[in-house]
TrEMBL record:
Species in which this protein is naturally found: Haematococcus lacustris (Green alga)
Keyword Flavoprotein: yes
Catalysed reactions listed for this entry: L-proline + a quinone = (S)-1-pyrroline-5-carboxylate + a quinol + H(+)
Keyword terms, alphabetized: FAD, Flavoprotein, Oxidoreductase, Proline metabolism
Function: Converts proline to delta-1-pyrroline-5-carboxylate.
Name this polypeptide is given: Proline dehydrogenase
EC assignment: 1.5.5.2
Primary enzyme class: oxidoreductase
Cofactor(s) in the UniProt record: FAD
Lineage, opening ranks: Eukaryota, Viridiplantae, Chlorophyta, core chlorophytes, Chlorophyceae
GO molecular function, one term: proline dehydrogenase activity
Domain Proline dehydrogenase, residue spans: 10-77
């Protein structure tokens, strides 16, 4: 995450941080703030699986961060 966020600062990357772990999200948000990456103005996105850590997605979204919920579709065997 550290390397990716630094690459975002340098304009070399966009990153989707896919985690259901609250401590990881808090660390990412804190590091973004330290690096001057604004919630809406940066190329940093957060993503969680629908039904998992919905409270994190809702909190991030309410704070202005770019969030995605991904929804698997189809038979498990596929």
């Amino acid at each position: 995450m550290e390397l990716l966020l630094q690459a975002v600062v340098e304009g070399r990357a966009e990153v989707l941080l896919g985690t259901h772990n609250q401590a990881s999200v808090e660390l990412a948000v804190a590091r973004m703030s330290e690096l001057g990456l604004q919630p809406q103005g940066s190329n940093v996105y957060f993503g969680q699986l629908l039904g998992m850590s919905d409270h994190l997605t809702q909190t991030l979204g309410a704070a202005g961060y770019k969030c995605f919920k991904y929804v698997p579709y189809g038979e498990v065997e596929q």
